[in-house]
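hiii so um. not sure if this is the right channel but i have a protein structure encoded as tokens and i wanna go backwards to a sequence. like what aa goes where. can anyone help
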């Protein structure tokens, strides 16, 4: 499990005098926490082959020069309705066709560990990096329909107790894939305000 343990400081949480806090040499996860972690982990997913063949003719229109733009802010919405901003993440802009739709359906929505695409595919993929606040922009995009996608990695911590009753802190790191579909027109800027948020994965 890709979780890191940190020694807890007694001042971080008020506890009874009888409770000891230190980093245990042999921590034991409570069964409920261990079961939940194992059920969420997808890091061991097997590599799966693509089913849709690559046809370069389907991408030709996306290789032209245009004057459209796509901009917005990267974020994921948590269960408590707060937002996690995607600071400095890399986004991709993919022309919509059967090949890229398979990537969205199987990798983003399905969570499959999909094999890398055809090497010729790379030259038709636009990339942009978000700033510290998650804002991004693509420029000089030819007209057409595109997928915009990225990953947002975030973390939180929980307290756990080992077999000796010693409390310690565990940091949990997760990844959430998000995407949306946009229609680009020359001379116009498309603003991304909503994302399709896929199920998060434990890292």
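sure thing!! here u go:
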């Amino acid at each position: 499990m890709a979780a890191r343990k940190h020694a807890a400081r007694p001042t971080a949480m008020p506890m009874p005098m009888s409770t000891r806090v230190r980093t245990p040499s042999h921590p034991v996860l409570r069964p409920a926490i261990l079961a939940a972690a194992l059920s969420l982990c997808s890091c061991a997913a097997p590599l799966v082959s693509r089913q849709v063949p690559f046809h370069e003719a389907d991408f030709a229109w996306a290789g032209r020069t245009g004057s459209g733009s796509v901009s917005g802010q990267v974020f994921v919405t948590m269960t408590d309705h707060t937002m996690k901003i995607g600071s400095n993440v890399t986004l991709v802009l993919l022309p919509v066709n059967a090949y890229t739709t398979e990537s969205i359906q199987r990798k983003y929505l399905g969570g499959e560990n999909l094999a890398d695409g055809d090497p010729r595919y790379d030259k038709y993929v636009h990339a942009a990096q978000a700033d510290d606040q998650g804002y991004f922009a693509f420029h000089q995009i030819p007209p057409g329909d595109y997928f915009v996608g990225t990953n947002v990695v975030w973390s939180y911590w929980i307290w756990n107790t080992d077999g000796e009753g010693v409390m310690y802190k565990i940091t949990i790191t997760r990844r959430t894939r998000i995407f949306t579909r946009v229609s680009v027109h020359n001379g116009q800027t498309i603003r991304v305000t909503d994302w399709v948020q896929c199920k998060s994965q434990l890292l």
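oh and Residues 98-109 form the longest helix (12 residues).
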